[in-house]
Amino acid sequence: MRFSEKIGKTPFRVSMQIESIDEKLENRLWNTIQINFFDVIGVNFYHSVQKDSDIGYVFQAIWQEFFGNRADEIPKNQLRDISAQEFVEYIKDWFFKSHWFEKYDFLEFLSNIDLSYLEIGFIEHCNNSLKKEMSAYRIVDACIVQITSEEEIVEIEDALLNSSVWEPVNTHLKTAIEYFSNRENPDYRNSIKESISAVESFCKIIIGNDNATLAPALKIIEEKHKIHGALRSAFTALYGYTSGAGGIRHSLLTNDIEVSLEDAKFMLVSCSAFINYLKVKIEK
Description:
The protein is mainly alpha-helical.
């Protein structure tokens, strides 16, 4: 908190930015895009960009895939190379006129380029900017996710890292994140299903039995690795919640309770934390 905020001369933000982006966050995000993306990959406003270069590939992906523009209309100079200055100015003009959710769309697109192609650490810088301005969103595995607690982000990221050597577990977790983070059509029901399936898959791997279900697998793990009985019972009950007559894994019934963002968030964070916990226990 700044000095002026402490003495009450200027207000300080007390709530997360959820369905909005204020001017400070908007400016910080643009600075992150400029400094930690364009500058890092070597964009020079005074130079042109050849189409078959690495920067040319990135520019064309942004122009055609994100904006959906015609390939022959990308800004060019007299030599028919891409004009870096005009290209970035086009993006900047769009960015400051776009809706808050469109800005996050763009961050997500650049994050996918970073994760799959560039590997320049752009996602980490974005998350730092989002954290500093109290955004309710973070980027996890190149997806924008609404999670308001930093501890929750850590649990999910650690679970993704810890499960990277176990493909089924990792796949279930990533799918849960994708369902949860889809802003146009979030699927909280299937996100919960994938979260608990990640735990079940990990338990199967621990006991070496692909045919086991969660409850008996947890019983074996409780006895072998000394996990608390109450914790085993809690996750067995959660599994029952997803598998019961009106549960997550069954067709919707007229009297079913609607699955909310809060339900899916709780399951994603809880299952991630439990996977991290189990990993520590079996390594002792």
